[in-house]
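User: Just a sanity check before I run the rest of the batch. Below are the structure tokens for the first item. I only need the designed sequence back.
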């Protein structure tokens, strides 16, 4: 385990320091190979991606509290004027940056404003996927056996996999579970207490992924708490970076109750009352956020935060809630129907406008694509996951969820 940086040990309080005698469990994190800035970013065709690193360097200079001292080097952890890497960003920063990209959620604000704490958290999604992979391997061993191992060797392998599956079950159900009384959520948990990294990340739509894994969450009350927590209405918070024509960078930080947007010509900003949102709706009435599940309620300007909805999240949520919904009905069934109908409507609206299926959609109004500050500014055309989830939802609507759509539409 010590030789594999992707394998870590985590304690119940999310604060583990090597050498301390604390009860801890094995968990997994994103941790990439490679040194320095990813060449596909620095030498790529997308200028806005390279600009991210210059913005990060300015950010750490303006907010030194976001750039703690490193345990390893005794120097500033993420930006150091003596560092010779691209934009004077450190190797620890670029490891985190590569980890964010490896996760598929590039970019969001969950792991710090610049993603700098990405390797410092045990992610809900990764550990759930590994739990499911282990469960699938055990099922395949049971069904097909093996021609390449003796019975004794096969038993040792099965026992190792089973031990890791059960360890993952405990970690996800206990250490990654954030209970708030009547509501709850699954959240990424901090490994080490570094800088101002919070114990858990903010509420994110990956909370639904453990519900999808077969046999992982067996407590009905926990499932209800996830649903109620995701349906809780809250005011959008803003933590966003803007760039003005003279190349000055403006940060709008911790801004709750008001959304600031840059005027289209770049000369100044306008302000509006921040909308309220929830990740999912339990109402049978149409809601302004009903075009799929937004990734979060944080407006960071990143492409994987509010207001964007992404096909894989819709899939995990619907499949995770579906068994309960079909068995018990009620709020779970309403939520599933809303997500299915909302996502299909979002895809239909954009397709009617452009003739394309795209990577992500604006969850409150697909007809009005909100340009991102960090990531792909325009809606990227294509993506098999959009096609696949759209078709899957049409099948569900026809076969299991009743008549959701007007046959003439």
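Assistant: Here's the designed sequence for the first item:
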């Amino acid at each position: 385990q010590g030789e594999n940086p992707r394998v870590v040990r985590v304690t119940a309080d999310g604060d583990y320091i090597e050498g301390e005698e604390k009860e801890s469990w094995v968990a997994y994190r994103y941790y990439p190979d490679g040194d320095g800035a990813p060449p596909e970013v620095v030498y790529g065709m997308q200028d806005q991606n390279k600009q991210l690193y210059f913005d990060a360097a300015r950010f750490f200079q303006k907010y030194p509290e976001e750039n703690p001292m490193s345990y390893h080097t005794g120097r500033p952890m993420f930006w150091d004027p003596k560092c010779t890497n691209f934009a004077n960003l450190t190797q620890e920063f670029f490891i985190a940056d590569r980890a964010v990209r490896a996760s598929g959620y590039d970019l969001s604000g969950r792991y710090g404003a610049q993603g700098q704490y990405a390797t410092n958290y045990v992610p809900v999604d990764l550990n759930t996927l590994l739990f499911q992979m282990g469960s699938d391997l055990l099922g395949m061993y049971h069904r097909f056996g093996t021609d390449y191992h003796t019975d004794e060797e096969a038993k040792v392998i099965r026992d190792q996999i089973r031990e890791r599956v059960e360890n993952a079950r405990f970690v996800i159900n206990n250490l990654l579970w954030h209970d708030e009384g009547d509501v709850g959520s699954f959240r990424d948990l901090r490994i080490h207490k570094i800088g101002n990294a919070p114990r858990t990340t903010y509420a994110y739509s990956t909370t639904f992924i453990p519900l999808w894994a077969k046999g992982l969450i067996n407590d009905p009350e926990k499932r209800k708490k996830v649903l109620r927590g995701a349906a809780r209405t809250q005011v959008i918070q803003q933590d966003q970076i803007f760039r003005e024509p003279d190349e000055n960078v403006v940060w709008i930080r911790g801004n709750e109750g008001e959304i600031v947007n840059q005027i289209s010509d770049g000369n100044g900003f306008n302000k509006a009352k921040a909308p309220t949102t929830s990740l999912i709706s339990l109402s049978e009435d149409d809601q302004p956020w009903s075009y799929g599940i937004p990734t979060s309620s944080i407006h960071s300007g990143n492409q994987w935060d509010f207001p964007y909805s992404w096909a894989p999240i819709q899939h995990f949520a619907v499949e995770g809630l579906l068994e309960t919904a079909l068995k018990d009905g009620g709020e779970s069934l309403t939520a599933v129907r809303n997500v299915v109908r909302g996502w299909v409507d979002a895809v239909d609206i954009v397709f009617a406008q452009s003739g394309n299926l795209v990577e992500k959609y604006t969850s409150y109004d697909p007809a009005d694509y909100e340009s991102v500050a960090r990531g792909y500014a325009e809606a990227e055309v294509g993506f098999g996951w959009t096609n696949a989830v759209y078709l899957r939802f049409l099948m569900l609507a026809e076969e299991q969820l009743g008549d959701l759509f007007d046959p003439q539409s």
